[in-house]
Amino acid sequence: MNKEAFQNECKRQLINYFELLNKNKLDTELKQRVQGFINAGEFLDVITRAEAIALMDETHFAVFGMTKDRRKTRKAEIKAVRTDQEASIFDIPAVERLTKR
């Protein structure tokens, strides 16, 4: 398998996983399969760790429209509001909150 074919298959698997995650459907078996596929590619020197991380970041952004760090921060904000730790976020109009992404 050549590098380009491997990367295309990685993207396909990552998109599949992230799209399910975006619909709040956690598939741990699929996650482990994708991780194993990437690890196998690293072991066989088809892809480097840095290339794998870049591919994951690129695919994550394509599906979620934001970086992993931004999504993590956003989820923490939502969790804080749900637990009523930060109800002041509702003092900001929704239009302004959405443009701060």
Largest sheet: none
Number of strands: 0
| Mean of residue pLDDT values | 86
Q: How far is it from the N-terminal to the C-terminal residue, by CA?
A: 39 Å
Helical residues, percent: over 70%
Q: Return the domain count.
A: 2
What pattern of helices and strands is seen along the backbone? HHHHH
What is the oligomer described by this structure? single chain
Approximate shape: elongated
Structural class: mainly alpha
User: Are there runs of 5+ residues with pLDDT below 50, and where?
Assistant: none
Rg (C-alpha, Å) = 17 Å
DSSP helical segment count: 5
Proportion of residues in extended strands: under 5%
Brief sketch in words of this structure:
This protein has helices spanning 3-22, 28-43, 49-64, 68-82, 94-99.
